[in-house]
Amino acid sequence: xxxxxxxxxxxxxxxxxxxxxxxxxxxxxxxxxxxxxxxxxxxxxxxxxxxxxxxxxxxxxxxxxxxxxxxxxxxxxxxxxxxxxxxxxxxxxxxxxxxxxxxxxxxxxxxxxxxxxxxxxxxxxxxxxxxxxx
Length: 134
Hints:
By secondary structure, the protein is mostly helical. 53% of the residues lie in helices and 6% in strands. The protein has a single domain, classed as Winged helix-like DNA-binding domain superfamily/Winged helix DNA-binding domain (Arc Repressor Mutant, subunit A, Orthogonal Bundle), CATH 1.10.10.10. It has helices at residues 5-19, 28-35, 39-51, 76-83, 91-94, 106-123, 127-131; strands spanning 55-58, 64-67. A hairpin with a 5-residue loop joins strand 1 and strand 2. The protein is elongated and about 60 Å long.
């Protein structure tokens, strides 16, 4: 599975918001400079993050964005699920009806188990974990 830039940059956006969450709302332009991601792309990412309840926005001259949840409550797996339209390793895991062999396929069971292990691992990391200095 190769993650899209949406997942990777969306995660970086949330980590950035978490680092500065105790300050005033953060403008996209500030995140853009710190993360070297275009304002336009960040604006595209912020919409689904708001809709999913990870980010909240404040309007006005001193407006910007903040985390809507604590960094400890946002799991990496949730971010990947949000941004990856097809988050399973293979289509037959989530849509067995697409394959005539799905009911008897041992390989499908292996893909399903691998997919579960992947998301268990991703769910073990939170934004708070990703903020820690190594």
